């Protein structure tokens, strides 16, 4: 009996001591402030919280890595038929020459839309994308017809040739609140799918979303992921992605890759990249100028050519010109500069004569193949 009482007392004493030690540790880490200068908190109090925060940070980074892991893929663009391209090239020439002075729904754009619509119905993705541009900017409108609805139908049609681009277009319709069901219930389901399948615009937009996340703990990882997305997009000719990639490389003082990125940006039509490289080759700037310094040997002829290209791209931005022939004009050093007439290939095409107007027989043939009215491009009435 006495032994049991002693055991109980011993247990009570041990528990009491442990309780007091726990209370002391708690009060050390959570002091009761009664005025004065306060009490310093012992270092051991912050260790568990720091460990918890490190675990949370590691978990957050791993979750973001799992969700946003990206493998670069380029979208394959299938060959286009000479017949549909005849309609597209003729319509595009009239369309672009109307960009500065044209009025919405004027005859030029309405006629161009017919050619685009017939070519698109026969699988021409270039005509499809350009027609969607005319519709989305309301350059063509039709009584009793919804432009947004036709854009949606064109995007579905586009899936047969450019699936990634079709997903990106559908993402655009969601942004406009067009009634499209999203895969996986995610708001950015179409955007992510488009980027993974290789659409260059989607890769750039996704990169911008990732770059814009306000989270210091994942900033380093997100920066590298953004560069990966921009690089993949820029390699496919998307100038704005290549331009911002070049800026990021400049910030890293990685001037070799910055030069390559901006060169690619010019090919994609980004005049800002031409402006920067013109300054980079001018020899006027040192490392204190973070925008125009590329650690390059001065080359005034290269600087002049970039300046001329920048001037044309800037003053004709409404035409969305590209410079795929840049390596034939300003190849990167150490290649020597070839002779040049001062014009990019797009400029010669635009300033030249119009492509031949497609014959009525060809238009009727292509319209019939797609079950369309050859005069409007809309489905034949049953």
UniProtKB/TrEMBL annotation:
SUPFAM superfamilies listed in its UniProt record:
HCP-like
The record places domain DUF6396 at 273-380
Q: Which InterPro entries match?
A: DUF6396, TPR-like_helical_dom_sf
In its UniProt entry, the species of origin is given as Muribacter muris
At the top level of its lineage, which domain of life is listed? Bacteria
Q: What is this protein called?
A: DUF6396 domain-containing protein
């Amino acid at each position: 009996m006495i032994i049991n009482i002693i055991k109980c007392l011993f247990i009570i004493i041990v528990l009491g001591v442990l309780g007091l030690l726990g209370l002391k540790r708690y009060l050390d880490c959570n002091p009761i402030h009664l005025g004065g200068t306060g009490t310093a908190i012992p270092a051991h109090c912050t260790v568990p919280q720091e460990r918890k925060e490190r675990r949370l940070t590691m978990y957050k980074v791993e979750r973001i890595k799992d969700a946003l892991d990206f493998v670069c893929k380029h979208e394959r663009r299938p060959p286009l038929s000479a017949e549909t391209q005849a309609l597209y090239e003729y319509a595009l020439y009239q369309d672009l020459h109307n960009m500065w002075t044209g009025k919405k729904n004027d005859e030029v754009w309405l006629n161009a839309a017919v050619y685009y619509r017939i070519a698109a119905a026969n699988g021409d993705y270039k005509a499809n994308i350009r027609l969607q541009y005319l519709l989305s900017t309301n350059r063509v409108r039709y009584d009793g017809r919804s432009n947004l609805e036709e854009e949606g139908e064109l995007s579905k049609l586009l899936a047969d040739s450019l699936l990634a681009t079709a997903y990106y277009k559908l993402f655009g319709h969601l942004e406009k609140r067009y009634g499209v069901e999203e895969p996986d219930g995610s708001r950015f389901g179409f955007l992510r799918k488009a980027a993974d399948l290789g659409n260059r615009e989607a890769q750039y937009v996704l990169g911008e979303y990732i770059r814009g996340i306000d989270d210091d703990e994942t900033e380093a990882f997100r920066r590298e992921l953004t560069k990966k997305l921009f690089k993949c997009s820029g390699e496919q000719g998307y100038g704005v992605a290549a331009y911002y990639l070049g800026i990021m490389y400049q910030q890293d003082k990685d001037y070799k890759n910055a030069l390559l990125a901006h060169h690619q940006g010019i090919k994609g039509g980004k005049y800002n990249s031409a402006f920067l490289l013109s300054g980079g080759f001018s020899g006027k700037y040192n490392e204190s100028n973070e925008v125009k310094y590329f650690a390059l040997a001065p080359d005034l002829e290269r600087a002049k050519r970039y300046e001329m290209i920048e001037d044309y791209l800037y003053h004709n931005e409404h035409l969305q010109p590209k410079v795929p022939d840049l390596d034939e004009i300003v190849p990167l050093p150490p290649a020597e500069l070839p002779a040049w007439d001062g014009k990019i290939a797009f400029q010669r095409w635009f300033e030249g004569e119009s492509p031949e107007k497609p014959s009525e027989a060809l238009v009727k043939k292509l319209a019939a193949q797609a079950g369309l009215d050859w005069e409007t491009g809309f489905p034949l009435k049953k």
